[in-house]
Amino acid sequence: MKKIINDPAAVVTEALHGMAAAHPDLRVHTDPAFVVRADAPVRGRVAVISGGGSGHEPLHCGFVGPGMLTAACPGPVFTSPTPDQIQAAVAAADGGAGVLLLVKNYTGDVLNFETAAELIEADGVDVRTVIVDDDVAVRDSLFTAGRRGVAGTLLVEKIVGAAAEAGADLDTCERLARTVVTNVRSMGLALAPCTVPHAGEPSFVLGEDEIEIGIGIHGEPGRERTRLAPARDLVRMLLQPVLDDLEWQPGDRVLLFSNSMGGTPLVELYLAHGSATALLIERGLLVERSLVGPYVTSLEMQGISLTLLRLTDELIEWWDAPVSTPALRWGR
Amino acid sequence: MKKIINDPAAVVTEALHGMAAAHPDLRVHTDPAFVVRADAPVRGRVAVISGGGSGHEPLHCGFVGPGMLTAACPGPVFTSPTPDQIQAAVAAADGGAGVLLLVKNYTGDVLNFETAAELIEADGVDVRTVIVDDDVAVRDSLFTAGRRGVAGTLLVEKIVGAAAEAGADLDTCERLARTVVTNVRSMGLALAPCTVPHAGEPSFVLGEDEIEIGIGIHGEPGRERTRLAPARDLVRMLLQPVLDDLEWQPGDRVLLFSNSMGGTPLVELYLAHGSATALLIERGLLVERSLVGPYVTSLEMQGISLTLLRLTDELIEWWDAPVSTPALRWGR
Amino acid sequence: MMNCDGAGTAAAWLRVAGVVREHCDELVRLDRAIGDGDHGENLRRGFDAVVDRVTSAEGDTPRAVLRQVAATLISTVGGAAGPLYGTALLRAGNAIGDRPDLDATAVAAALEAALEGVVARGRAEPGDKTMVDALRPAVLAAAAAAERGATIAEVLAEASAAADAGAQATVPLVARKGRASYLGERSAGHLDPGARSTALILASLAGSAAS
Amino acid sequence: MMNCDGAGTAAAWLRVAGVVREHCDELVRLDRAIGDGDHGENLRRGFDAVVDRVTSAEGDTPRAVLRQVAATLISTVGGAAGPLYGTALLRAGNAIGDRPDLDATAVAAALEAALEGVVARGRAEPGDKTMVDALRPAVLAAAAAAERGATIAEVLAEASAAADAGAQATVPLVARKGRASYLGERSAGHLDPGARSTALILASLAGSAAS
Ligand SMILES: Nc1ncnc2c1ncn2[C@@H]1O[C@H](COP(=O)(O)OP(=O)(O)O)[C@@H](O)[C@H]1O
Ligand SMILES: Nc1ncnc2c1ncn2[C@@H]1O[C@H](COP(=O)(O)OP(=O)(O)O)[C@@H](O)[C@H]1O
Ligand SMILES: [Mg+2]
Ligand SMILES: [Mg+2]
Ligand SMILES: [Mg+2]
Ligand SMILES: [Mg+2]
């Protein structure tokens, strides 16, 4: 294992020190670990809080700032944060207008946020939780853990964060989050695995020209292992299940988010984005917004995910609204 | 070789199609290949143009936009662009106030830009060239190709681009570029190589716990091959030669730019940034600005570079000025 | 026979910490096969904190000790296992009330409450290939033993044996909860890490009771 | 003996394109050892364009053909080699002027001008481990052969042999120009890719002249 670290157990804390040095407009705490925008609590604004295992950077801490998350809780690498972190983040972020927790659908995250929410509620805070489960690689069912939350989480955070910034109330923020969750779908693939620092070995092994389709963001295996193919075929393998999962209509306006799992060069990611855009246009969809970059990663994993969000005027308005975080920044 | 591509020879063109789809505020041309901001030529403003081999994304095309580059010319992967691309970019970008070419110091880039500049000058355009050579890994000498241009190039582009946006004339822009070049130094290391699509094999091979210190951004070998060490030692190996190369004074204000070579997770990069900040503070330098991210990359190479720029009020002003490009965006 | 007051309970859980540390790599390996490879590290982090933080003052009840262990695990383990084990121990503590010493019936009741806690949080059914598949047989075995008048050591020994068998029986199962469920059919053929850690913890507790 | 008018010149350069294609992988391998591994691809891209674009109309002079080849290489090769080979051919064309046919003296003069062009752009000295180390001995050999009245085929054969020897002689050298210079001492022990491609091009031209 080759990593730029000192001690596997100290990775997250030491990285937070680096974040603190790089971003004076964030307040970074290490014990318990959470990151909160420097001007929090913002009086009268809903606090939008997320979190999850580390190793997916810039998700979530890199999305803390005006117009997006109020605070974020980083767990150890690929391990959910604990309730005390979430409680501390809420205490720092709560501006009196309620708290919305955005949680990726993994058992660990769900249970820890659920435990935290019970404790926070007991303190008299109005807290709501919205679970993001956009990964179509996993078949949903009442009897399983359900679909995973992956890259679509960024879109939920951006859109709800913009509404909260503009003063939307907790009901509105919660409804908006559910609207995005209902309309967003993702699927990813891996060309090469990643290695968790404290594990020391790759999370899976792929042959010379094997790829894993339907990969999760923790190196969990996907739907199937198959052969490497030209980019245009890979793009189709990802988009077809996404298109099959929702009832898309020709003329639907969509946001296409082409995400790198960390180790894929931008030149390949843009190439895939071009290919995906062409395929969607062919299917009669209107690609009205794009996002391309390594935003929801799995350490150095090589691979990509494609996320499609059905847009409405309301969602476009909040997507376009100003945002000012370390990793996502535009407007005003 | 595992890559998300269709045909090694078409990678750059197809990636440019993706850029065009993702960024409506850029005009993207593929034959010859160049990217120019949509509102170019901007009358009365100096056109700031750069370019170089592809594979370093977001450098340079991702830095085209208000407040930074007017246009950029992407060559094939790791190969300089040709004079006809540069001429076409100049024709599209020239707003009548002169053209500044920012060139990384590699023989290929220098010769192609030099050839282009001769042709452009022959057309009566006032064109200046500033060569960036910030890489302290290579010892400079009149009898060699000199130091390479690496991550410091981004800082030159940002600072000069801001001045040009604000209406600075060609002399001022050229002087400013030379000031940045004089005051910026970088050094990088690699943990794992990258593979150029048309080469199909890694550009070098490293043993299980070997690293290459002083690596260039094309997978060129560096100063020495050594053993992997804790992050704090790696950071010292990079910063010491940088500190030795310029006469830094205690109390000097600096910008620290921690750059990923592409395949290094952000969590490791932030960790290194924290470590580097601490070391600089220990040496009495004032770290007044930070930049952390995969900005000047070598495809999927794992590794980092650290860049130090000595700041003045003037440089800080232009650094902080608004910028709006695909990869770097802040202000207003 | 161990002391079944607060101090004895604390000593037993410190011994669990040692077992977790010893089996950390094994649990990581199991979790890497069908999960994300962190179960061993998660528990080790949590039980290292237990060693640091859990103390039993003169006169502390077993319940007070269990609450400390539970709170520590909840705030340090993370992952699925943190809230599950934490909730289990909170409920177990509540079940035994404020008695100064445990007896066999109390131990069996505590185990049953622990199982209820895990199910309340995780909503797993038997056969879903989770820690429930180790804990449920342990609860049944403990109840039967307590009913026939067994000692604490015997109750825990039978619970431990049942947990171990239950854990082994997860091998052929297809996971329906937790990360392993993403693997679908591919999860069959592997031991569930959480079931294994449950069996290890019970074995350690049984060892403490016997010594 | 080949035809030494414009058509013959064009035919000779199309043949070079074939040789470049054939040796592409070898040049890539050489460049990977001490450079960035693209020299073969760069030249192949350029000479594929030469095949597409270069035509010789009835009555075109050799100079007109060389200008086309030069312009094509400059706009398609990139890297260090593009401007260097492009400038070399531009200068070579200028040196032979508008004569309709080449003779041995003109060929020797063209080679000399090509060398001057490479040096003017690249500022390399002999021994810097660049294409200059193949081209310079070729120029000297060609001049000597032309002076003693050799044919074009003989001039190019001797130039080619000298270039090949010069290229081989780059192996022990430490590079002082181009990417290979970043390697310092580590560049010794490898053949310079640009010197090798110069030798290959001259060998191909010599072959055309002889056939
Ligand atoms: N819903 C659930 N109910 C009961 N146990 C569960 C549930 N989900 C997961 N587990 C248990 O948790 C174990 C994994 O724990 P751990 O690896 O620490 O957490 P994570 O899966 O978040 O990485 C599984 O092996 C399983 O026994
Ligand atoms: N300054 C120079 N003068 C003459 N030849 C040079 C010079 N720099 C490089 N070369 C030649 O160019 C060759 C490399 O060409 P190529 O690989 O196509 O370009 P790049 O180095 O830009 O990738 C070297 O092997 C060397 O022969
Ligand atoms: Mg986990
Ligand atoms: Mg090159
Ligand atoms: Mg796990
Ligand atoms: Mg080369």
UniProtKB/TrEMBL annotation, chains A, B:
It is an enzyme of class 2 (transferase). The keyword Methyltransferase does not apply. One of its GO terms (biological process) is glycerol catabolic process. GO terms for molecular function: glycerone kinase activity. It comes from the Bacteria. Keywords: Kinase, Transferase. Its EC number is 2.7.-.-. InterPro entries: DhaK_1, DhaK_dom, Dihydroxyacetone_Kinase. One of its GO terms (cellular component) is cytosol. This is PTS-dependent dihydroxyacetone kinase, dihydroxyacetone-binding subunit DhaK. It comes from Actinoalloteichus hoggarensis. The gene is dhaK.
